[in-house]
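Quick log. Single chain, no ligands specified.
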Amino acid sequence: MDLSWSHQPLTRRRTLAAATGLAAGALFPPGPALATAAQYTNPVVWQDFADIDIIRVGDTYYASASTMHYSPGAPVLRSYDLVNWEIAGHSVPVLDFGAKYDLNGARGYVRGIWASSLAYRPSNRTFYWLGQIDFARTYLYTATAVEGPWNRLTTISTPYYDAGLLVDTDDTLYVAYGNTTISVAQLSPDGRNQVRTQEVFRTPSGVGTLEGARFYKIGGQYYIFLTRPANGQYILKSSSGPFGPYTMRQVLLDLRGPIPGGGVPHQGGLVRTQSGAWYYMAFVDAYPGGRMPALAPVTWTADGWPVVQLVNGAWGTTYPSPAVPTPPRQVTPMTGVDTFDGTTLKPGWEWNHNPDNTKWSVGNGLTLRTATVTHDLYWARNTLTHRIQGPTSTATVQLDHSAMRDGDRAGLALLRDSSAWIGLKRDGGATRVVMVTGLTMDSNWNTTGTGTETASAPVSGGRIWLRANADIRPGAPRPGTFSYSTDGITFTRLGPAFSMGNDWRFFMGYRFALFNHATQALGGAVRVTRFEVSTP
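-> predicted structure:
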C-alpha cells in the first residue's frame, strides 16, 4: 500500500527473547508540513501506548498499540491532527488464546498483544489488524469501523513476529516480519492464507538486532522500517519489488529524546498528511509510566531516504503543528470523569487478563462482584485498569462498599510487577481502610510478595473516596501516594510514599486499577459510582 491508505507504524521494543494520502506514483514531498502559528509539545500522548502502527484514512489518523496481557487488546487511537488523540476501540475484543489469559491455572503476564499492525484496505473499505501470539501463530481481525465490531478473519500458522502489514497499490497483501532476519510474506487475496514467504534481509552483525517491522510503498519503492532496540531506527529500501533486494540506511541512533530522563525515540512509523508532509511517530521509554508516543516531522533526500527533523541535535520537545484541515470535532479527552453510565465500558478501560463477564456490570456505576478467592492480587480476576496520565496525575474513586463480605479486599491500586494499593479490608464484620505495599513479581512473572499492610484506619458507613497520586516522570523518586475521604472533600493521607519501579522488562507502565476479590468466599460486591483522572 502506498503509505497513503493504510498502516503506518510504530514498532515494538525489545522482545523478552533476545490512507488515502499518497497518490500512486507520487514522489517524495519537498519538506515538512507548512508551519502554522501553533506548536505541539512532545510527548503528544503522555500515556503508555507503545509499538504504534499509524495510518491515515481520508482526513482521519488511526494508531494501534501493544497491550500485552490486558483485555480487550490492541487499542485503536483516533486523531484529526496527529497531536490530539482519543481511544476509539480495540481490535482484539478478547484474548481467546488460551486459559492463561483467563487467569485459569496459568497467567499471561507480558505475553499477548505485542507489536502488531493496523492497515486499511480501500478496495473493501475494511480495517485489518494482524499480530502473532506466543510465537505460535498469527491472527488477523477485520472491521469496517475502528469502533468495531472486530471479528477474527483467519489464523495463520506462521508467527509473523513484530509484523508490518502492507496493502499494495494493486491490492495485494504483504507482511514484513522477523528479528534480525527479516522476511516478507504474501497473503492470499482474501487475506486468509499465506501464499509465500521469503527471507529478504539479514542484519549485519555490526548493527545488532533489528525488529519491529513496518512495511510501506512510497513513490513506487518498498520500505521496511525497523528498530534497533532500544536506541535506534533503520530503514530498508527496495526498487525491485516487495521481495527485494533491500539496502539499509540508519535513520537515528542514540538520539536525545523529548522526555527528561527518558530514552531514545524509536520503534515508530511514518505517516503522510493530506498536504503531503511526512511525520514519524515513535515511542520514548519513560518508566515507570511506560512508553510514550512522540511526533517529529520528516523530510526525504533526493534519492529517497527519510530524515528526521531535529531541534538542536535532538528530537524536539516542540515543533510547529501539522498543517491539516480543521478537525470536525474535538476528540474525547483521555482524562476526566467516568460515572459508568450506559451499557458498556468506555474504551479507555482494559482488564488485567480476560474478565469473568458474569461478575461485573455497568449502568448507574460499575459493580464488581468478587470473581476469585485469593490472597494474591495478581491472580484476582476482574481487576480493571486505566492508564496513568503523565507527568503526574491523580485518580479518585467513589466507592460503595456496603455489600462487601468478610474476607473481601477492594480498592484502588498502582498496578505493575511491583504494586501498592489503598482500599478496604472487611474482616469479622468490621471494615478498615488500609494502605498495602510489597506486591511483587519476579522476572518470570511469578508472585514473590502478596503485600504488607503499612497503615490503616477504621471506617463506618457504606461509602468512601479513595485517591492515588502518581508521579511517573523518569528518575527518582517516582512516588505514588494514597489518601481517603469519608465526605469526598477532605482527604487524609494514608501510609508512606510508594516508589514505583522503573525496570523496562514488564514493558507496560503502571496503571490505576480497580479491584475486588475475596479471600474467604465469593458473594460480595462493591460499586464504583465515580472515577476521575485529573492533572495538576
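Confidence is low (pLDDT under 50) at residues 1-36.
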